[in-house]
Design brief:
Length: about 210
Amino acid sequence: MGGSTITRRRNTARSERAQATRARIVEAAGSQFVRDGYLETTMSGIARAAGVAVQTLYLSFGSKVAVLEGALGAGSEDHPAGYTDQLTAEPDGILALGRYVAVTVQAIERNHPLDVVLRAAAADPEPAELLERTRRAVLDQHAKAVDELAEKPGFTDRISLQRATDIVAAMLSHETYDLLVVGQGWTPPDWAEWAGRHLTIDLFPGNRP
């Protein structure tokens, strides 16, 4: 028993060190990608900034595009992917929608600099595949949220769930962030209020704000 306990502790300590190393790499890489762009950022530069050997970087991630994917996923514990379960617990559809809008806007604001890096690099096959995979994952997440919202009283029967998902995805996208926040100087709360108001009209038409 004593030996197995020591082994478990060692394994736990090893796992924690590995997680800490990955977190340090992701933080360093995110800054490098945003500052220099995807093409100009090198694995050796990331390793140097993170204080690890290049071999450690390759063992942890395998490729530069995987490091970018890790940076994009940093902080995902408060991303909408972890939020749809909470939509089930909120009986009021408009409140649930408002909270989903708020957490999605926060996630987009946080990830926008790296999303710009990814889109700029999409002429290369590996970043292009990551961009497509990321977009599919976001659309799937919106679809799950719409499925949950559709169970709330007052959800529209005038449009299909697919159309509702498309509307949510258009309102809450990096492209819309570019247009309104970056291009027109809206604040993220301005955008969240506007998106929430119009999504309420489309998805809960009998309960207009």
